[in-house]
Design goal:
Distance between the termini: 55 Å
Shape: globular
Strand content: 5-15%
Number of helices: 18
CATH class of the largest domain: Mainly Alpha
Structural class: alpha/beta
CATH architecture of the largest domain: Up-down Bundle
Mean pLDDT: 93
CATH superfamily of the largest domain: Dehydroquinate synthase-like - alpha domain
Number of strands: 8
Largest sheet: 6 strands, parallel
CATH topology of the largest domain: Dehydroquinate synthase-like, alpha domain
Oligomer: single chain
Helix content: 40-55%
Number of domains: 2
Length: about 425
């Protein structure tokens, strides 16, 4: 058998999709094909108030299924809210689940599926070093994801993410068995999404695309065995192809979707972009902006964005990721200038005229977009100052699963520089 020092193999997986206006009305038939007869819909109170989960339930019941709704998912899930959902789901027996909402609902549904199928302490499955990184014992029950935001791409990915309240940091669970069995993507479900939510979730899509596109190449990792090959392989030709398509759609429709939410064509582009970017990062991985985002979200004190729940302070995931993106891609630029310039040219051809410094073109394209759609101007815009940098560095460096995918080695001083540059982005 040939001995290889570096990896020569990458894996690429994706969730089967049903896409288009009205697709959600066929979900009863879809679930029946998966063998589900008794299903639990998992959603959050705000999405439940729109009537979409009930519409999904009615469609499932029309297909002959027994359906109940759990509507207490926490927006930006926490370890406590996930445990609460698992406890509620454990009061009955289910042979399938439906996650309806943004990444919060779909990620919670993944965790519920895992922990009711193979009961254990949540920490057993959470990625190291926060948890113990245990793999599921086998396949999970059927899970159908119905996204109502164009953002996380959770409907296509094998990961779920949550806040660990006592540690003031985000982490999650990553395994191929968590990937939904089917994603039912209906752009009509996003028409009522407020502009602030559209902007935040769209920035998550954009960062998924850019981070997976610029990730460490799969062939630069040490050789894995089949048993140790991870879900995040690094950048690869298939993920790159999906990512470029996502960038084109974002360039065409992101601003329109935020500024004119009733534009169905723009909403459709954003849903496609989220799906394409999910297919990219769900296999290639994400790196510095997402690693920084976890403590940014976990340590928030007072910030309460418009059109999000106001009971507790929170930085929406897409915002927390975007705040360090300009500085992060300035940091990664030397590893592959061609990809960074290609991304900048797709997103904003004017970036070439905006600056003669090639290293600044992608950051310039990002900050121009962020200004236009109302993203806060850096960390200071969500309540952080220079005195917070040390704690944010510490939280970022705990995200070694993500930082390992960065295209260059990331040290404490590198993260400090990225965060300091990100206090204000323009």
């Amino acid at each position: 058998m040939t001995e290889y020092l570096n990896e020569t193999v990458f894996t690429w997986g994706a969730t089967p999709l049903k896409f288009g206006a009205g697709a959600v009305d066929e979900i009863g038939w879809d679930l029946a094909q998966l063998g589900a007869r008794r299903v639990l819909i998992i959603t959050d109170p705000d999405v439940a108030a729109t009537g979409v989960p009930q519409r999904v339930a009615d469609a499932a019941k029309a297909g002959g299924l027994t359906v109940e709704i759990y509507d207490r998912v926490h927006v930006e899930p926490t370890d406590r809210s996930v445990r609460d959902a698992v406890e509620a789901a454990s009061e009955s027996t289910w042979d399938g689940f439906i996650g309806v909402g943004g990444g919060s609902a779909i990620d919670t549904a993944k965790a519920v599926n895992l922990l009711t199928t193979y009961p254990a302490d949540l920490d057993d499955y959470v990625n190291k070093p926060i948890g113990r990184g245990k793999a599921p014992d086998g396949p999970l029950k059927p899970l159908v994801a119905v996204p109502t935001t164009a953002g996380t791409g959770s409907e296509t990915t094998p990961v779920c993410v949550m806040d660990f309240l006592d540690l003031q940091v985000k982490s999650g669970i990553s395994h191929s068995h968590l990937r939904p069995n089917l994603a039912v993507i209906d752009p009509l479900l996003t028409l009522s999404m407020p502009p602030e939510v559209t902007a935040a979730s769209g920035m998550d899509v954009l960062c998924h695309a850019l981070e997976s596109y610029t990730a460490r190449p799969f062939h630069s990792f040490p050789r894995h065995t089949p048993e140790t090959r991870v879900a995040y392989n690094g950048s690869n030709p298939i993920s790159d192809a999906w990512t470029e398509q996502a960038l084109h759609l974002l360039a065409r429709s992101f601003r329109k979707a935020v500024l004119n939410g009733g534009d169905l064509e723009a909403r459709t582009d954003m849903m496609l972009a989220a799906t394409f970017a999910g297919m990219g990062f769900g296999n290639a991985g994400v790196h510095v902006p997402h690693a920084c985002a976890y403590p940014i979200a976990g340590r928030v004190r007072e910030y309460r964005p418009a059109n999000y729940p106001q009971e507790v302070a929170l930085v929406p995931h897409g915002e927390s990721v975007s705040l360090t993106a300009p500085a992060a891609f300035r940091f990664t630029f030397p590893t592959d200038p061609g990809k960074h310039l290609r991304a900048a040219d797709i997103l904003d051809p004017r970036a070439q005229q905006a600056t003669a410094d090639e290293r600044e073109r992608l950051p310039a394209a990002l900050t121009s977009l962020m200004r236009d759609i109302g993203v806060p101007n850096g960390l200071s815009g969500v309540g952080y100052g220079r005195s917070d940098i040390g704690a944010l560095v510490e939280g970022t460096m705990q995200q070694q699963r993500l930082l390992a995918v960065a295209p260059r080695t990331v040290h404490d001083e590198d993260v400090e520089a990225v965060l300091t540059e990100s206090l204000e982005n323009w």
